Amino acid sequence: MHLTRLAAVAAFAVLASTGAYAQKTVQVGHPTASNSHYGIAARTFSEELAKLTNNRFKTVITPNGAEREMTESVQIGTLDLVITSTGPIGNFVPEVLIVDVPFLFRDAKHAHAVLDGPIGQEIQAKFPAKGMVALAWGENGFRHLTNGVRAVNKPEDAKGLKIRTMENQVHMQAFRTIGVLPTPMAFTEVFTALQQGTVDGQENPIPVITASKFAQVQKHLTLTGHVYSPTLFITNKSLFDGLSDADKKAWTEAAKAAAKAQREFVAKVEQSGVDELRAAGMQVVSDVDRAQFQQALAPAYEDYAKRFGKENLDRIRNFQ
Ligand code: EAX
Does domain 20-312 have CATH number 2.60.40.10? Predict the structure, then answer.
């Protein structure tokens, strides 16, 4: 529901009962289960925002939403905040797509430095023109490949597999280049698609694979770490513009605290999650020659360089 309508209802209820102040309701959506890194992020945002504003904002969290649809809702103002991977965001703000290029970030530390620095801010600055405000960069994690058909040790082993990808042109192109049949679909449909064999596999960070119980429907995991997947905390521009300066600051601070909590949770699950998945019956290929995958992607890199500018990719690669 839209903030202003809810706010009016909430304001009436609070004023009627206490005559004190108006408490505004903030509707927050995220893509995975409540016990995932997105759930932690949403709860941290909620707690921090309440703390920083003397409880003037009350957050209602809805898990398991489709990222593209939630983002559309934020853009038109029927959802107040979405915490989403960048997967579908390039369809709204094309400048985001560059961060989805495979093997662009060396490690999480490198990614955090880039996204929290001037490059991340330049990308965030593109959102208001699309009716949205990106408050902070959080983390989904490094993406790995799972499938139900065979162990994937090298790029050739993946040839011919039908793999669900995000609705993201950069990812789809990469998979096509190594001979995979990319099948884009909303994350909310992935478990069933794996279970019914509509697709052979999917790719996601460890915390998504554990929280979504993919071990129940996938036998093989290869720790490719082929893409670093950040998240964004995105709100509606008119809503944000309508806040006082102090509240704008509170929303931004709350999102940054939530992003930090999300990154910490992801780091923890990236450590413990692989053992958990082994215990749940998955066979794990952990010794992956990433250079082989990068070589197999050479034709895609040529296209990325044309599309994004080699100097822009190098600026990210070489960022200290
Ligand atoms: O953001 O769609 C995806 O695979 C995402 O990584 C997942 O929904 C978490």
Answer: no
